[in-house]
Design brief:
Helices cover 47% and strands 13% of the residues. Strand 8, helix 14 and strand 9 form a beta-alpha-beta unit. The longest helix has 24 residues. The two termini are 13 Å apart.
Length: 394
């Protein structure tokens, strides 16, 4: 069982089993208690809860945030889109990026506030223009498939090409600093970035990049190394401007056979993490791969600080396959948020208890980004349940 905090004249603890059929949403008094607790923690603790948990300090509950928590499912964001119509306008204007990043903070008070941006954002500074088209996603108008095109890719200088990212991160740190929440940056991994750059956008079968892999591998490796160097630069830039942890998304690496992962993805992830650690030794790095069941051991070999498990991976199995030296993030199925509140309660508590029983450091999250159309009241319930959970050793 897990312990869930409730509020009244005094703080009490109520034991709630994962199978509980009813779970009362925290009342306003409990939310005020959580806010006041956070304020007290901010004054007495230098680091926010998420960083303290990752350091292995004793914490009363796991920190919680959601991948894609800022954006499309929120009505306030949808209203913004009516005025600021393109994704790039919203993500490449510091004022708007900060506003979108803070929308879920104001609504749910997550323990991580992630920058509203896109993994492709920095590639314009590498002489790779792109656009994001509504209903279609990213579009690379001149896909890179030859050595001469790879030669034309330039080094990334973030201050010159993405200064709005640095500004947004600095302002987010000002807004939620002082122990309130952890500012999260993120980057795309070289293979995933290359899928867009070579395919020209989204793909179902990845035929162009696989043709390059298996006919001109040296061309692809040249592109991947340039992207890896840029990602290292971008991680340091984000850390220098206020990011307190950075997540690497290798979203499409599971499109590779495991042995091909060892050639076209894994070595570059290892390189990025190793080099970033040299430059930012205290920066926690989270690694996420969608549909990663076949790659858990290989993810561990990349040596991130945190393995973010996809919802298709059993939490206990993933932990035991990769090892308990890592912290873990995840991994509730985002589709559960379309269900009823009793089910959401059960699944949140089950996920937290599984990680607790395994004895690992844990960040409560989804196993995938939150989906368009997810009811906001269910998102609120997810956070309320996760933030009211208490470890039994406290």
């Amino acid at each position: 069982s897990l312990t869930c905090a409730t509020a009244g004249p005094k703080t009490t603890n109520v034991t709630v089993a994962p199978s509980t059929r009813r779970f009362n949403v925290l009342c306003k008094a409990a939310q005020e208690l959580e806010t006041n607790t956070n304020k007290n923690d901010a004054s007495s603790q230098k680091d926010p809860l998420l960083l303290r948990a990752l350091k292995g300090e004793k914490v009363e509950r796991p920190p919680v945030w959601m991948m894609r928590q800022a954006g499309r499912y929120m009505k306030v964001y949808q209203d913004m889109c009516k005025v600021h119509k393109t994704f790039r306008e919203r993500s490449e204007n510091a004022d708007l990026a900060v506003e979108v990043s803070l929308q879920p903070w104001r609504a749910f008070q997550p323990d991580g506030v992630i920058l509203f941006s896109d993994i492709l954002t920095p590639i314009t500074g590498m002489n790779i223009p792109f656009d994001i088209v509504a209903g279609k996603g990213p579009v690379i108008h001149d896909p890179i498939r030859t050595q001469s095109q790879v030669d034309a890719v330039t080094d990334l200088i973030p201050d010159d090409c993405v200064p709005y990212v640095g500004e947004a991160l600095r302002r987010l740190r000002e807004e939620v600093g002082g122990g309130q929440s952890t500012v999260l940056g993120f980057v795309g991994a070289p293979f995933t970035l290359a899928t867009y750059i070579v395919e020209g956008g989204m793909s179902k079968n990845y035929t162009h990049i696989k043709a390059l892999m298996f006919s001109q591998p040296d061309v692809l490796h040249g592109l991947l190394q340039k992207l890896a160097d840029a990602v290292v630069t971008y991680i340091k830039y984000q850390a220098d401007n206020g990011a307190q942890a950075v997540q690497i998304f290798d979203s499409w690496a599971a499109q590779l056979a495991p042995k091909d992962f060892d050639v076209f993805s894994g070595p570059y992830l290892k390189y990025i993490i190793k080099e970033a650690k040299k430059q930012c030794p205290d920066l926690p790095i989270i690694l996420y791969i969608s549909n990663s069941g076949a790659l858990i051991e290989r993810m561990a070999e990349c040596d991130p600080d945190v393995l973010s498990l996809c919802h298709t991976v059993d939490m206990s199995e993933g932990i035991n396959r990769a090892g308990k030296q890592f912290a873990y993030q995840g991994n509730m199925d985002a589709g559960i948020l379309f269900g009823d509140k009793d089910t959401i309660t059960k699944k949140v508590l089950e996920t937290i208890k599984t990680a607790e029983d395994e004895g690992v450091r844990h960040i409560m999250n989804l196993g995938h980004g939150i989906q368009l159309g997810t009811p906001e009241e269910n998102v609120a319930h997810f956070f309320e349940v996760a933030k009211s959970a208490r470890y039994n050793n406290n």
